Amino acid sequence: MVLTVHDTSLPDLLARQIAAQPAATILRKKDRGIWKAVDWAELGRRVHAMAAALHAAGIGPGDVVGVLSEISPAFVAADLGILTAGGIALALYPSDTGEAVAHVLATSRCKLLFVEGEEQLDKVLHIRDVCPDLRRIVILDMKGLRDFADPLCESLAQFLARAGSFTAPALDANAIAVLAYTSGTTGQPKPVWLSHRNIMTQLAAGLTLTGLGPGDERLAFLPMALVTERIFGLYLALASGTISNLVESVETVPENLAEIRPTVLIAPPRVWQRLATGLATTAEAATTLQRAAFDWALRSGSTLARRLVLKPALASIGLDRLRCAWVGGAPVSPALIARFQALGVDLQEFYGLAESGGVVSFGSVIAGMELRIAEGGEIQIRGPQIAAEGWLATGDLGHFTDGRLHFEGRISERLTLRDGRMVMPTRIENELKLSPYISDVLVFGDGQDDLAGLIMVEQDVLERWAQTRDLPPGNFAALVQSDAVRTLLQAELDRLSHALPHRLRRFAVINRRLEPGDPELTPMLRLRRDVVARAHPDLLQALFAPG
User: Fold this and answer.
1) pTM confidence score
2) Which fold has domain 250-410?
3) What average pLDDT does the chain have?
4) N or C: which end of the chain has fewer CB within 10 A?
5) Is the C-alpha dihedral spanning 490, 494, 497, 503 positive or negative?
């Protein structure tokens, strides 16, 4: 399905798709073990009901309405209903703390907020006093809230019951459609306002680039607050007719991936690293003959080897049907890409940011966008997809290799050693994160003689390793500080850093479990360099102490 010039807005696109194929499945959601389908006609009815209720609640063009929820059919209906009513759709990270949610609600002047259920509602009720523009909270799932009553809040059923007649307003292509916030990896999240024109231009380029169509399927598990997931995930799926399969929860992603076996998968490096670790773990548990066959298939790379050995291995984790496999959102190790390509998965690096509508390049720059590397290596971009006039200075470092863009990291992360040598820590970090035992690592050393690192371990993998070696049970802090674990991690650092121009002289392990919502972690569970440095001054001081 190709976008036409008549699709000036997302509601226009939605209406055309509903009219063209009302009975075709466009969403699936697994509920209590059963995948339940939603066709275009049903989605259209839900979106119209949401838009009518929003109109009855006084929401109109230019009003910001937020959704604080994991991905679900109700989320999709709310998001598209906001756009259909002429509002500006804002998605918030469900893992965010109350403080982070308050910052977004207050700075966006959000007027109405959909919340998933009791947990998110409780979070918002504690911070509503600092969000003066918020005048209504709609609860999508009332489980556990039967006796709850609050004048600011109502259930989704009550909200929809007040809807009256409604005619969708005509939307100008330059009207703001989506309000997104940057990830906050290196500072406070900042608002980005994307118009319908920005988004529709991006979708047209995406359709041409990917060739997605009604025969494709994707697994939706990343937060909708991520612009790439929102536009190149959900909205591109709507434009192409690709079925979006909505996971049950973050914990069920591996199981759901194996069930759906999607044809398209877009994810950050951390997800691909975990998939690679899963394959490695499976190989380790195999028989001697099976491991030998797997090693032979990797070395051979022949069609026969892929069909007999590699494809079944990929099928076991749901990757055997992939034809569009994308990794980005953070600097990517070439070794990670090479690992999947050796398996027969054509993993491609993409680069993007919120201001670009999610994607700037899949190696080569996408249609309609211009990119240049300025003095000092900064990536600068411009084009109709971008929520800025003229050349946008991204603050990112990059270079071209064989005509393909490679993202190196943020300029603010670059280190200068005492002797004047400049080091881009992300290159070292990316290689070290190829270890199945290392979830994330931050390299420090600005103004120092050498480099040192703070490591966040892959907890489940490390604990399984400890069990197989009969290490005495104990708390997490005791485990990561044990001599056995330090020896293991040192061996991993030596193994992975032999080809790097700089090595870590010392390392320390963050000795407490970090959970989603902790200030040290971004919503995508990447370590925030500045926050980690402030939270663990004792570890950093010890790393650079004399002797």
Assistant:
1) 0.89
2) Rossmann fold (3.40.50)
3) 89
4) C
5) positive
